[in-house]
Amino acid sequence: MDEKEVWSWKDKFGDYSMVPVPQRETKSLLSVFYVYMGVLACIAVLWGGGSLGLQFTLKEAAIVAVVGSAILACIGGLTAAIGGVSKCSTYVNMRYPFGRIGSQLFGTIIAGISCGIGWFAVQAWLFGIILNTLFPNAWWANIPVAAVWGGILMTTTAIIGFKGLAWLSYLAVPFFMLIAGVGAMIGIANAGGFAQLMNIQPASPAPFAVGVTQVVGMYIAGGVITADISRYAKKAWHGAFAWIIQVIIFQVYMLMGAVALTLATGAANVAQALLVGGAGVGALLMAIFGQWTTNDNNLYNGALSFATWIPIKKKYITIGEGVIGIALAAWFGSYGGASMQPFQDFLTLLGKILPAIGGALIADFYIYRWYKGESFSERYRPKPGMKIAKVNWVGWISVLLSTIIGGWMIKSGIAALNVLILGAVFYIVIAIICDKTGVKMELGEHTIDETGV
Amino acid sequence: MEFKKYTQISTGVLLILSIVLLILSGIAWSKNIYTGFIYLSIALTELIGILLLYPRIMKIEDKTEIGNKSVQHNWLILSLGIAGCTLFLAPFFKVDTMAIPYAAFAVCLISVLLSAFNIYNAVTKANARMVV
């Protein structure tokens, strides 16, 4: 939104979930950076680093981490800039390449069910598992008990919205960065010095491409939905810049901290390795902050996607998601820490569709709109009374084809990247063919009202 | 007391605390380089974070604007202070004498309390935003 422009919307559902963020509510580059860092500062990233430490030497792991992070920086940078221009969430932006129904359907699949309920439950359960591993005899660290109080903490900041995520990130991110440094120092100290650490051979060596796939796959979901945060940025490029810096510098740093710890101790469970290595209460706080800062974002993103078709205040949607997620986590946890593997497999399956959606979104915004002669700053800028398609079949077909071909048929390369590139290529080729032949891409018509619906 | 004056004084106190931490990190470094590195990371980040606040508020007269800047820097000090409090008494940070970890813990605890109060003060007295 231009500063001088009159903000002609009504934020009926809260947190600007359906309407563009007004200029007066935008935040500094630092704030946006911190919230992205909050998502990154999670145990999953350290576990990802731990996994690299089991497969690569320190030097190889550094190359793998840099290459994987560079790919993520490109993808997330492109999607973040879309949010910076439109000031709308990913699911509202998706109305252009997929139509209104498409944005509701795909948004619900990738963010609502997958992040908001599924991964939220998995992470809350994992929170219980980690605390139980650290403090096996404490009643409050019993898996279902910890999953419940951890889930409540995570839900609380998500209910507050962007501000809640930012407060927590301000508090947790510098701490978490430091803990990654502690991990590296414990690793180097245990190995007997940096030179010795460099010479340690991994327990189960793996090819380079496998490592890059792991790094990209670990965070590609975050890379596709960056607009949810970048819409709050003061300038269009702020979100993209913040994303690129946090991935290229800080993700590599965190991964390498965990790699060093794992190479030296042989344990991929970073929290436990830290505790054994002597990090004390820091290991506990890392577990709490790490899961909290990531899982409140899962819930936040999920609620934004549900808000595209559930006409109630976003905070009630967040509460609903939180209750379901916590109940699922406690239920799994109460069966003696029963495996959630089938559930996680289902979520991974849903996650395969996400890069395809990102590909179509990037292709539509950057290439198709350029091809149609739309100016960059006017792309994806909704206005009350504007007409949008109910269904854009080109987006649907591109997602379907690229998910099937890239996700299951192509066996080489980085699966998530294959799907994303195919999604973009299919979208742009079909859209331009339609344009040249006069075939209509849009089916049905919907008028956006002042609440953004 | 004028808000700008208060911010400058409280920042000065935090600056002294971070210099004390820097001295402690030098001692820790001489005993155990790995432990010393973490001490140094905390001390230097705090020092730079605090030092940068001075030029940022020097020419500003608007109370809220000063408050907003103060909030940004004090969040950093608060987070690093908490990290210091949780880490310095842990086994990995033990150096020959426990006086150093306890002194570092005390410095961090004071930083946590003061920075938390600074944020509260900026929000209530200067109408600063907690999320800037």
CATH architecture of chain B: Up-down Bundle
* Largest sheet report of chain A: 2 strands, antiparallel
* Bulk shape of chain A: globular
CATH architecture of chain A: Orthogonal Bundle
Order of helices and strands of chain A: HHHHHHHHHHHHHHHHEHHE
User: Strand order of the main beta sheet of chain A, please?
Assistant: 1-2
CATH third-tier fold name of chain B:
Four Helix Bundle (Hemerythrin (Met), subunit A)
CATH topology label of chain A:
Hydantoin permease
Q: Strand fraction band of chain A?
A: under 5%
Distance between the termini of chain A: 18 Å
Estimated structural class of chain B: mainly alpha
Q: What's the quaternary structure here?
A: heterodimer
Q: Alpha-carbon distance between the termini of chain B?
A: 24 Å
Written description of the protein model:
The complex is a heterodimer of chains A (453) and B (132). Chain A has 18 helices and 2 strands. With 453 residues, chain A is an all-alpha fold. Chain A has one domain: Hydantoin permease (Orthogonal Bundle). The relative contact order of chain A is 0.19. Chain B has a single domain (3-125), classed as Four Helix Bundle (Hemerythrin (Met), subunit A) (Up-down Bundle). In chain B, 80% of the residues lie in helices and 0% in strands. Chain B is built from 5 helices and no strands. In chain B, helix 2 (33-51) runs antiparallel to helix 4. Chain B starts with a helix and ends in a 7-residue tail after the last helix. The interface between A and B is medium-sized, with 30 and 27 residues.
Give short descriptive properties of this protein:
heterodimer, A: 453 residues, mainly alpha, Hydantoin permease, two-stranded antiparallel ribbon, 18 helices, 72% helix, globular, B: 132 residues, Four Helix Bundle (Hemerythrin (Met), subunit A), elongated
